[in-house]
Amino acid sequence: DGGITQSPKYLFRKEGQNVTLSCEQNLNHDAMYWYRQDPGQGLRLIYYSQIVNDFQKGDIAEGYSVSREKKESFPLTVTSAQKNPTAFYLCASSQRDKRDTEAFFGQGTRLTVV
Amino acid sequence: AQRVTQPEKLLSVFKGAPVELKCNYSYSGSPELFWYVQYSRQRLQLLLRHISRESIKGFTADLNKGETSFHLKKPFAQEEDSAMYYCALKTGRRALTFGSGTRLQVQP
Lengths: 114, 108
Fold this sequence. Notes:
By secondary structure, chain A is mainly β. Chain A contains no helices and eleven strands. In chain A, strands 2, 4, 5, 6, 9, 10 and 11 form a seven-stranded mixed β-sheet that branches. In chain B, strand 5 (32-38) and strand 6 (45-49) form a beta hairpin.
């Protein structure tokens, strides 16, 4: 069953701790993305990667870090520097550099700082 | 910088009524525009894209470059259309920029 999988579905973190969100895809897509979804603000781009071992900052990258060591995986680390980390995080993937290509989304991870 | 504006947070209509979800964009290049939909407890998914000029589930959207708009329309709303709708713009760097979304409620 092809698709994009995010884990865990719910995550709780204490203030001051780093936490890593997992995103895996078996669609053979080169490009992967991380978005943050907040009520009333839509989806905001955190980081994206067009190819293995390369990634770029999105609009709200501060306090986050990523890696892209494998084509299938694009984990997101929410660091203690992120001032308001409680949010819903969405991972997506797509074919690279193709006009009108569709992005496929995971089910999301809801992160709560306690 | 690119931006997508969806002015309505909530749009409530009765079943059978026409629907128009507004989307305006700002981008200096050649735009690639999409509508994504998120039904309750389902993942975000593509509804339609402007370049395909397709009608999906009765929805259509026309790109108006003069008005920089990409409004989503359906002549007769159905209850199963109730969902969150996002307009999205794909820019030269190939990452989607989303609007803030419009929740469509179709009442019986």
